[in-house]
Amino acid sequence: QGKQKKARKYAVMKRMISLRDERLKEKDRAKAPVKKKEDPSAIKEREVPQHPSCLFFQYNTQLGPPYHILVDTNFINFSIKAKLDLVQSMMDCLYAKCIPCITDCVMGEIEKLGQKYRVALRIAKDPRFERLPCMHKGTYADDCLVQRVTQHKCYIVATVDKELKRRIRKIPGVPIMYISRHR
């Protein structure tokens, strides 16, 4: 003769004593929260991120010819692979005068790549490129570009890096230029 199995009860939970139970001592009881009346004339505050005034509706009014284009390391490398003249292809894309800008961080990144990327270094040192000095610590170019674009909305970012593109898309009013299908 075996033991009869009991059916398991569902949604069974341990009973807990309420903090307002009269069996508890006065000092252990929970006090009812006192509600403060809201003043209707008081200014209601809430945290809203400030967008710059240059973004009117969805358009960035600071962008205009001549376009200032922040160039990333891999954009230069991909333009070499696709056999594109960097400045000329930018002008063909935007139908206006373009001023490619290169930061000290991007320059340092290209120099670190060594002899294999000496053509990219020569392109980056082209006199048509505008040099932008960096005042921050470190030489991580992606952070530098994101920081600069967040402060000044007058740049177009030229990059092929997926991670950097994803970061820049979160910043409103900043266009991205990239190379695909050799153009």
Automatic annotation (TrEMBL):
Chain residue ranges for the region called Disordered: 24-45
CDD domains according to UniProt: PIN_Fcf1-like (cd09864)
One cellular-component annotation, GO: small-subunit processome
Record keywords, A-Z: Nucleus, Ribosome biogenesis, rRNA processing
Residues spanning the signal sequence: none
A family per Pfam: Fcf1
An annotated GO BP: ribosomal small subunit biogenesis
Residue intervals of the PIN domain: 67-166
Subcellular location: Nucleus, Nucleolus
Subunit structure: Part of the small subunit (SSU) processome, composed of more than 70 proteins and the RNA chaperone small nucleolar RNA (snoRNA) U3.
Family from the record: Belongs to the UTP23/FCF1 family. FCF1 subfamily.
Entry protein name: rRNA-processing protein FCF1 homolog
Species this protein is from: Furnarius figulus
